[in-house]
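Annex B. Sample input.
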Amino acid sequence: MATSASLSQTLKAQKSESPKAPRTLSHMNDGLPVLTRKILDDINSDMAQELKYFIEKVNGDNLGWEPDMEDVARVLRSAAAVLISIGHADTVQDIWCKPIATRGYKDEFDFLGKQGHWYDMCRTSCVGCASTGNWEELMSHSLLRKTLVHMDDNLPESETLAVMSAWHQPYHGQAHEALWDHMHTHCEPNAFTRYAHHIVIVQSNGTGKSRMIDELAKKHFVIPINTRSTMSAEHGRHGLAHPPPDGAVLTWLTAQSESRENTHQRCCAFIQALFEHILYIIDNDLAAQSAQGIPNLSSAFRDKMQEGMQYGNYGGYHVRFFQDVISRATDNLKTNHYEYSSPSSNALVIAHRTTSQSHGESSEDWLFPPEIPCHKLMERLSSIATSRGAGSRTRHAVDAHYPLLTLAFDEAHTLTNIEVSNQDIRVKPVETRKWSVFSEIRSVLRSLKRQPVFAVFMATTGDVGKLATSRMQDPSSRILQGALSQIPSFSDLGLDQLARKISLEDGFDLSEVTSNEYMSHLGRPL
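Annex B, continued. Sample output.
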């Protein structure tokens, strides 16, 4: 535990800092503070000493009291001092995408004043932590997470330009169409022979997995989620990789993962928040485009998510999108307890591939909390697919867009770290079971099997079995016993799509096809 003297010295030093001096907050291991139980106990003890006035106000008789911006800024500075004192710290500029240093903010108060959405989220977190005496949520808040790619500062500009240029080149091949056909064929909400609506794509770097998903998103509604570790060096000496990672998503999903129950709760809360926020986005940010059918809506959402995207960093809209999702997920985690749920073949099912009303179903018919906003979202997308602006109002218009929503997890191997639980709440008597964040997300998808939602998990890992498990190694007993099966993985990314076609009838010159110019066009483009 830090001594009061060391904390006082740190706070005094912070007050004397110039506006441009770095202020310290913790980030370790992919942006998440290393909060062991011992460190968390020290943090809670020190914060209780440093913030007596704030804690008393939160827990006192002052009903309706809300901390102002100065109060929140003071809590952040105290959190910074505590984290310095325990020896785990780095700068706010790094953690907050360098806003203070590069955008002219004077200090935490100035930053919160000009970024209202950050202030609201942080105020809620501060009050919640003060009321419970546990400051883990604040220390693990998305505000404190590094989202920048950790790459060599000397990365040649030509390499980043080459990557960005390749991303914006016209797409070659029909891999995205083949992927859609594969998903469309296996999206069957009324069929219960498959475990869940998800597939795995495992291929080497630079083979076009991410670009294929991006091309798919031009016509079909796709939520791209890149869970690549921000500390990873797996993409080469410089960490050369694109699109950028959604570091805050990875850290939120993998936080507090000491038990399977905790991880399942977080996965449920996050997936539910995605559905809730997409509904909000469609009705507010994309209201005009939603009147023009699914392709126009999907393309508009894709464009917004890529606004301002550069090598290593997303633009403001994309960053705010996942900030809002994480904020909703945090609230969901506080207000819901998620039970493991398995869909039943005789349960109420969304009006399958039809434009008629859904047989009087209400949100109360869906007992699994994430399925309530999911069902509402599917109804909304179904109505958009058959809207007047979509050009077709028949049942086939909905059918053509199944799955109505795709969750695309890029670099998903970061979610596959295997843990072992000795308390599986679904098995009696209690027995040991292996699990991971990936397996728990898959379990959530299993509970959503009645809905036309699909997930794609892409990875570059050499350990294919962690994602595309064989039947005999699958954690699901129903798959192991043969009662259910997984949808086959997808690998048809194409070959030689940039190469000039050779006609056997017209003949060809051997020297031509062995030339550097011709061979450089072989293989798979980004």
